[in-house]
Amino acid sequence: MIVELGHYALVLTFALALVQSVVPVWGALRGDDRLMAIAPPVSILMFLLVLVSFVALTIAYVTSDFSVVNVWENSYSAKPLLYKITGVWGNHEGSVLLWVLILVFFGGLVGYFGRNIPAPLRATTLSVQAWITAGFTLFMLATSNPFARIANPPVEGNGLNPILQDIGLAVHPPLLYVGYVGFSITFSFAVAALILGRLDAAWARWVRPWTLLAWVFLTLGIAMGSYWAYYELGWGGWWFWDPVENASFMPWLAGTALLHSAIVMEKRDALKVWTVLLAIFTFSLSLLGTFLVRSGVLTSVHAFATDPARGVFILVLLCLFIGGSLSLYAWRAPVLKQGGLFAPISREGALVFNNLFLTAAATAVFVGTLYPLALDIVTGDKISVGAPFFNLTFAPLMVPLLLAVPFGPVLAWKRGDLLAACQRLYAAFGIAILAVLFTLWLWGVENVLAPLGAGLAVWIMAGSVSEIVTRVKLFEIGPSRALSRLWGLPGSAWGTAVAHFGVGITVLGIVTASAFQEERIQTMHPGESVELHHFEVTFDGSAPRTGPNYTEDVGHFTVRSGGVEVAAMDPSKRIYTARKMPTTESAILTSGLSQLYLSLGEVHQDGSMDVRVYYKPLVTLIWGGCLIMAFGGMLSIADRRLRVGAPKPAARRKMPSAPAPAE
Amino acid sequence: MTRKQRRLTLIGIAGVVLAGALGLILFALNDQIVFFQSPTDIVEKGVPPGQRIRLGGLVEDGSVERSGDANVRFKVTDTANAVTVTYTGILPDLFREGQGVVTEGTVGPDGVFVADSVLAKHDENYMPKEVAEALKKQGVWQGAQN
Question: Which of A106, A361, A641, B130 is disulfide-compatible with A185, CB 3.0–4.6 A?
Fold first, then answer.
């Protein structure tokens, strides 16, 4: 009964989405307040309905109702409760339902909190959001209905893919989806602006918090996914340039560019047309990511099922939304007025620089991800584009961007002084040079790039600290008055500094963990030891163990440092009973910011085991930096000026209707 | 600077960066991509020594030999031909005789494929797509699985 209720709610959502798709935007174009007024309540109602659907499916999972195909295929009665709940989105149908839930959640948020948005813009935005909702609910009802029943219910389910039975999975997809789908609202705002033909600085102020919110979650989701792959897959790597990872990374790159260009638009009313295009691109890349991951074009842990009908359906949706929005853009963008002139060396210039390199990097990732697919379709040749391609293209594009990060915030708007900016960064530059020398002294000159990379990371960190120090005038007015200025700094200034600092931290982690990692792979007999960095790892023996839904061989290891026992590590090889599927459970010892990583290979007859031991210096900084970036984003959202809405700027100087500056 | 000059400067810089990025991408595509080949492709057409390729097929039954310190030797077959592969390292969980596998590396002068990575996928039902197609070519693929 509950399951049917969920199904019914979903159908009702589809119907409401159709109404919402037409009525408010029609009202906005005709200037009819009554038609526009239906948008907010309907958006909230749609959210509640999809929530009912989602709860219904969750109940089916928790009660192990195997008469529902989806539950039968993906659950197992002996599974721990937590994984019954997270299993709801550990499969194709459920994850699309989560996708739609977040889609309508964002629509609902705009409906509920968007009172200060002008009515036509809000109504049109919600209509556009409803187009997406209609498309995806139809997709679910037509090809991937999570509520389908089986006539003769089996007694036991098939179980969830064991590597998905992990707390990392419990949070990774929801975070990632809030990010992915969060960009839908920016997209809807952009399309609405194109339809209405009105775009001003206020538009950017409404859009920026939404972009920030989505970006924060996408950052967290990607970091979480990376950490999950790191400890769960047992390969010891934290980024593989796997197409599925790239699928989430492309919207992140475009979204990061969008954040920065929206600042220019908000503060200076420039780069409008470009910002709208970026908003469209960002969500298009999110849709593309959904297509790549959900259609089974790519084979990966995410490709739960490969049903061609689904792939084709998403592809059609993809073409409709991307093609439609880009055509609309081509048609309407010339209507949007240009404003805000600036010199190449200026804050705007720096942000354009940022956008240029981020979009170029996104393009490189895009080509590397899709080229194999395209080549396969065109010539039938099977190729793989792996880490070497991305290291060769992505890294060189990131270096100038990262070098420029500290310059952005110290340049003035409109016309900046590069020399003055350099003077403000002397201290940061000095610290970066010291960091290079220190790294050289610590690790020697075998790898010249690594110390330079560490220097780059420190340069970004020192740059963001010096930005705050300069803004509070620490050295001019003394510490006590500087402290009070510190409190007075706007959230967005803090956000910038903190997020940039996080970038530096992540870069530092990437450099040290890749350049100075130590690795041993060997067969160990009980009693044998291996030495790595300052650790001595002794294999004490292995023993079988039985868990709730698996059996495992556990290897016991003792870790000593300087002869003193510091920890015991128990990596294991598991076999999950329901699917007879083996997994590797690595053991990780965090020591300071570095980690010792142990994973098991083959277990031999004589009690010996193949063991892989890594020492990864400062590896935790990679994810720590992402957390700091996300925190910076949240500080920026918390900025009062974004929430309250700044006072209207005094009548802006009217520009002659000359052609737009290049953007 | 006039408005026009500013615009041209911006377009110029953007053009240079984009051209640079494009050049990098094309260069990397030329150099860094790895072609997938079946054992038959290698046996019949040959592969220049030192060129990186991906070799995929089934792990031949009874061919896996282990010698201390995580060295493995096995044969990858598409039922028509087989190529011997050596690998040092930890094999993935789902590496089994008779199962699909994709390895990446180079062919040595003695015709033995030296792999530096071995992939078998995350799911027990999963057959690497390239392997499935290579097997279809040999007419032995039943296609019951995904």
Answer: A106
Place of tokens 């994984």: A83
Residue B38, pLDDT > 90, answer: no
Higher-confidence position of B45 and A136: A136
Highest mean pLDDT out of A28-37, A163-172, A414-423: A28-37
Provide CB contacts within 8 A for A85, sequence distance 6+: A58, A61, A62, A170
Confirm if B92 and B65 have CB atoms less than 8 A apart.
no
Based on the fold, state whether residues B70 and B123 are members of the same structural domain: yes
Residues B74 and B131 in one domain: yes
- One domain, residues B22 and B75: no
**Please, are residues A511 and A517 in contact by the beta-carbon 8 Å criterion?**
no
Nearest Cα of chain B lies from the Cα of A313 at a distance, in angstroms, of: 19
**Residue A326 or B89, more confident:** A326
Q: Which two tokens stand for residue A27?
A: 């009202």
Answer yes or no: do A173 and A226 share one domain: yes
- Residue B13 forms contact with A (CB below 8 Å): yes
Q: How far is CA A479 from CA A351, A483, A494, in A?
A: 31, 6, 18
In single-letter form, the type of residue at position A135 comes to G
> Is B68 in the same domain as B97?
yes
Q: Which of A516, A545, A573 is the last residue of a domain?
A: A516
- Provide the residue range defining the domain that includes B132: 35-137
CB A279 within 8 A of CB A125: no
**Dihedral angle at the C-alpha atoms of A59, A61, A67, A70, nearest 10 degrees?**
120
Residue A641 belongs to a domain: no
Torsion, Cα of A421, A254, A453, A368 (10° steps)? -140
* b/e code A306-342 from CB counts within 10 Å (16+ = b): beeebbebbeebbeebbeebeeebeebbeebbbbbbb
Question: Which tops the pLDDT comparison, A608 or A460?
Answer: A460
Residue B131: the pLDDT is 66
A595-615 exposure pattern, b = at least 16 Cβ within 10 A, e = fewer: bbbbbbbbbeeeebbbbbbbb
For the stretch A303-308, contacts whose Cβ atoms lie closer than 8 Å and that sit 24 or more positions apart, written own/partner, are A304/A91, A304/A92, A304/A95, A305/A91, A305/A92, A305/B146, A306/B146, A307/A143, A307/A144
| A324 and A454 assigned to the same domain | no
State whether B27 and B42 are in the same domain: no
**Which is more confident, A183 or A445?**
A183
Does residue B143 lie in a domain region? no
B126 marked as binding residue:
yes
Per-residue buried b or exposed e for A213-245, using 16+ beta carbons within 10 Å of the residue's own CB: bbbbbbbbbbbbbbbbbbbbbbbbbbbbbbbbb
**A453 domain-assigned:** yes
Confidence of residue A642 (pLDDT cuts 50, 70, 90): low
pLDDT given at position A640:
65
Q: Which residues of A touch B90 (CB under 8 A)?
A: 234, 521, 599-602, 610, 612
Chain-centre distance of CA B120, in angstroms?
Answer: 12
Amino acid at site A24: P
Mutation choice for B interface testing from A306, A383, A415, A528 by most B CBs within 10 A: A383
Answer yes or no: is B144 within a domain.
no
- Residue that wins the pLDDT comparison between B39 and A381: B39
Number of domains chain B contains: 2
CB distance B94–A582 less than 8 Å? Answer: yes
Pairing of strands A587-591, B71-77: unpaired
Q: How confident is the model at residue B135 (pLDDT cuts 50, 70, 90)?
A: low
Per-residue pLDDT reduced to its tens digit, A264-323: 888 888 888 899 999 999 999 999 988 887 766 665 445 444 566 777 888 889 899 999
Q: d(Cα B96, Cα B88) in Å, to the nearest integer?
A: 16
**A-B Cβ pairs (cutoff 8 Å, strict):** 141
Q: Which residues of A475-570 form beta strands (DSSP E)?
A: 518-524, 529-532, 535-546, 550-561, 564-569
Q: Is the predicted pLDDT of residue A647 greater than 50, yes or no?
A: no
In angstroms, rounded to a whole number, what is the distance separating the alpha carbons of residues A347 and A416? Answer: 7
